[in-house]
Amino acid sequence: MKRMVLWLVVAAVVGLGLYVRLAPSDPARWHVPVVAEADRDLPGGVIRMVQTGPDGLARLDKMARATPRTTVLAGSVDEGLITYVTRSRVFGFPDYTTAQQDGDTLRIHGRLRFGRRDFDVNRTRVDGWLAALQS
After folding, report:
1. CATH annotation of 26-134
2. For residues 63 and 126, is the Cβ–Cβ distance under 8 A?
3. Which stretch of DSSP H or E encloses residue 94?
4. What's the start-to-end Cα distance of the chain, in Å?
5. What pTM did the predictor assign?
């Protein structure tokens, strides 16, 4: 009986891990304009607004694409809106970061998909990108 419970627990953990890594990302849900008027720290993410000039999104795009485990979900620099998926190293949890160029203002919304808190992972990544962008 104990072995059966152990195997069920192992199967559940493996199944959850596969779901986290293989669940499809729906662009209609995640690739949406950033609606914000001020910086905000959220339990599951962060919103940042910064004056970058009109080329901020193009410069950010180069940094984001160079970030490990980060891919483009949807959008482009020409569109003025891009959503990236960055996965955690060990478990592969996806975080979504949408960046939008609005004139000289770059708006960024980084957020988690699973769970309630991201332990400041999105804030650290987004603030790191912005620090590099402004240096």
Report:
1. 3.30.310
2. no
3. strand 94-102
4. 61
5. 0.91
